[in-house]
Amino acid sequence: MTLKINWFKYASPASFYPLAGKMIPWFAAASALLFAVGLYWSFFKTPEVLSEQKQYYKIIFIHVPVVWMGMWLYLVMVVWSAIGLIFNTRLSFMMSAAIAPTGALFTFLGLLTGAIWGKTSWGTWWDWDPRLTSFLILLFLYIGYMALQSAIDDTRRSDRASALLLIVGMALIPVIYWSVNCPDPAQCTALHQRSGLGKIEGNILFAMLTMTLAVWMYSFVSILMRLRNIILERERNKDWVAQLPEVAQ
Prior knowledge:
Blueprint: H1 13-44, H2 60-87, H3 90-122, H4 130-151, H5 155-169, H6 172-180, H7 202-234, H8 239-242, H9 245-248
């Protein structure tokens, strides 16, 4: 007996819409559980003092996950946009559009928490080094993508134009990564801490990774909810949308 799987079944907005609705509660429950565990471990199980940072360092349990997710979601947007350009799939462009506000939010929170951390630890809100500046440019890329999407009324043209912007802007991600993970300590003179998961104390690493998973699950929830709204908006003239119970009411 051969099991045949139609991998392209859910490439249709009509097929993916109900699937997204079924996945949202599961991701929401996982996010809530992971946030509860991660926050508890961050505040009560991690060391009280870390070097000269004292208690200020615990902002990393928010700062690091949202920074990681801000960069990761941008790469996911690039992948979906590339798929849309290659295969001309509407759902791919919709997915990219649904991701953008969440990615922008995490990038903004990364800058905000970084500024708070910098002020409490080093006495300054901002330093124009490559690490901070490149991440600020990433926020501008998110905003530029959403602005370009809104500026062009024709969705096909706006999808393609904004996809090209994303692909060009992808060159920024290696710059951000290199600036934070600078291989030459002599060149890493900025205030920002260097990364190094292998050197992190066990409880700190567990809390950070748990919070990262929590933020990831939240991303799924917000993106899928937004994607369903985008599908309804773009497919509003299709017969299958009129037959949905929530629309018929």
